[in-house]
Records
---
Amino acid sequence: MKPYFFLIFSLTAALITLSCKDSITNPEHSAGRRDYVWTVDTLKSPFNVLFGLWGSAPNDVWAVGSGASSIDRLWHFDGAKWSIYNKEPIFITGRALWGSNKNNIWMVGGDGEIWKYDGNKWSKNFEYKIANTYTIIVADIWGKSSSDIYAAGLTVYDLQNFKAFILHYNGQKWSEELVVPNNKLQFIRVQGDSKNLFLVGVKYNQPNPDSFFVYNYANKALKKIYEATNISWVDVNLIGDRAYIVAGNDVYEFENNYVRKIMNFDGYNFGQAIYGRSKNDLFLRMYDGIAHYNGTDIQYLYKFGNNFTSWRGRVLDFGNEIFFSVMDIVNNKQMMLHGKLK
């Protein structure tokens, strides 16, 4: 592996417009560091996009995608190199990973399947089945603990009829938690904290998304907290103790059941995703790299060679080390960007 030392490309302060400036500049957290040393690994897995990323430590990282084949869609990093996991065939078309420790890792994906790694091998643990369906996709997974895990996705009846669902694991078995009686909605994201569970849903007017929704889920009921139309993407992330909603080029903060816009990236190369440890330590997905906001300004931490290369899926953060799964669409290259603080 060849290390690449970080190169900072300054952006002007005008890159960001704050509708509630005090909510960002409030010095409740120290400015995030930027002195990373970067390593880029190219993974030879044709037609695979590794959306799923999870690890118990920087020397125990897993990545999975829904492309490729059963012998090269799941990868593992041991701290020195990435390699294809090939102890047994991985028949699931994986989409997301979550774990509570190195011997308790879950993978979700196509055909309603949920797989589990027990420290020795991967095997199918559960299959969600509904009669008379075309396919069932478990799109995402997240857990509060090893005995309180949620998965969400969609049941496809035909190209015009979907139903969103939530599954729950109680430490012993998976069961159906909720089915939304709407034939156009599908869940694409589940994320939570100790008190809240958030879901991102989308309705499609084929082939394009028609509208996006963010829900807060509790007591088997969905409460809509955000809705948007005529945009290309919506995502939700927890930063500190608050949920941040990214809707197109806008970023909203959810607090005390109220959503307010705090950032806007119109006219810039924003890739419609953020990750952060605090308000002063935010990573911004750009279409050509990764930028950082430290409470004062925005700078690129790493820049790629074209406008079609950016991270996919969740960021994996260990504090002093951070991993991004990156796809270069132009060159069909799947890469892992690994940063270490000096």
---
Amino acid sequence: MKISATSKDLTAGLLFLAAGAFILYSAVQFRIGTPRVMGPGFFPAMLGGLLIVLALITILRSFGRRDEGGTAVRMRPVLFILGAAASFGLLIKPAGLLIAVFGTVVIASFASNDLRLRDAVIVGVILAGLSALVFVELLGQRLPLLGTVFG
């Protein structure tokens, strides 16, 4: 019986391990505290630790499976989703929350082969409005609704 790691599971496990180690290392720079009196590093430390546990489970499982063969990575969805996330970061300050959320939703919708621009615009408007309601009104976050470009 030949034991080999599936490349997808092993790669995912190693990426989870690296991310978890980075998060845990960053979290211990802050006061951790206790579960009763949590410090600012407590929650990130817990998440980093859980990600490391998930990574180890994924890596161990990769050795018990047969490799199904490689599947091609479709670049269109990857590029549009990454572009949507980047656009939010680039738009939030100069354009404000409403435009940033709307732009993110519309750009992310191009990742799908079944793009309906009208639907993306409707969802973008709804999510922008809900984001403003939740974050600005209900949670009291100091986010500009329309940024310096429009204000």
---
Amino acid sequence: MNTNDLLLLFRLLAAHMTGEWIFQAEVWQKIKSSGKFFSRQQLLQAGVMAILGYLLAAQWLAFWLPPALFCIRLAVGYYTYKGKKPVLFMILKQILYLVLLVGLWLLLTKTGIKMVFSYLHPVISHTRTWLLLLSYMAVMGPIGILIGKITEPWRKELDLTRIKGLEKAGLWMGRLERMLILTFVLVDQYQAIGLLIAAKSILRFSEIKSSKDRKEAEYILIGTMLSFAFGISMGIAVSWLFNKI
């Protein structure tokens, strides 16, 4: 595998992103909700994807590439999901696209799967990779549950029927802020943590000013401080372990 092979993979991915996202229009949205496999719009989008892929890949002798891209887009793009987890479905759909495009790339470059694994194996088997993965899993899951248990006595003092907000918004805000803090600590950018704290303080300032919402404001601040403390502690611990490995 050389630089040109990787460049070809990036070109195929660029063609997919261009056709799937940049050229996104109302007509493509109508395709997904029509339920007709051989609709004119569906065929048109698959054709655009095939032409873009062939032009950007610049593999002029691979005459089978446009039909392959056309069939992949037509088949995978047909399925829609209208349940409660559209984001998860979209991610899985894009992963399937990625797997199929990598398969086409392997055929174009005549790169064996064993060679790909030989490049990935040092990364996958490295202790730091698993330590990093575990640290992000910890701030996403167990630490959030622990913070919830710690703040539970104060949460019982709140009038939850009066408090209105987006469903699970606080959960995801906590996860994202801990992920950001962990990342900032690992890349040694502590000043960015200060900016994050300042930004969140400004957003919560109006709640702190109101005496009638004092309990809610204090509860939020306690959760925020715990989230920051755990995120920073996790980052420092992982950084220390990195130096020991």
---
Amino acid sequence: MRILIFLFLICLFTSHLGFGQYKIEKNVYFAGKYYDVFILRIDTNTIKRLSLADVNGGKFNNNFFISACISDDKCNPLGLFVTSGDKMQEVNLNDGSGNFYLKPNGALLITKDRAVICESSDIKKYSLIKWGVQNGPMLLNNGAINPQFTTTSPNQYPRSGVGLMNEGNNTYLVFAKSNAKVTYYELSTLFLKKYHCLNALHLESSNIEMNLPHYTKSTQGNVCHLWIYETGE
């Protein structure tokens, strides 16, 4: 009996993490709402296929992509933007109105061998950034939901975000888009309770572009910049 229980637990663990470089979870049901989720294992191989791009450039085919950051009406990122190691836009620690300026805001940074989600004030701690965007607000910070979010908020929109999940010796980026209107609190809880992320960052609300390989085809018409993972398929 003990052997059978042990084997059962191994099967459960393997089924949770038993995928190649990425995993697609379509219409995930959590706390009364549905989400599309793309989970990417972070290692040197996947980082080679992960990039930032303008929506007008490149052929996406069966690649994964999702809205990367909040931009102004001229498609200039509001905060840090690093592409191919070149810093195109500096860190923005100013106050202002809109989602980007909800504090604390943060950034998703990719170096040659790791992914980091951190508060904007901590970006200076990291060097050799290959790809990186600043966005806002932070959904989770060291396992805590942003204290500005409440369960009774009337502000509900389709929303997307990215979380950093650790399982054993592996690190994963969890990209998620709600398929219905949700609050920031609901999206934060998805990353915290469902995927056990310690840090997570809001990406976009309302005008979200996301493509899941073999499932959806996006118009690529509502955003300026995308995170792209080339599946090689």
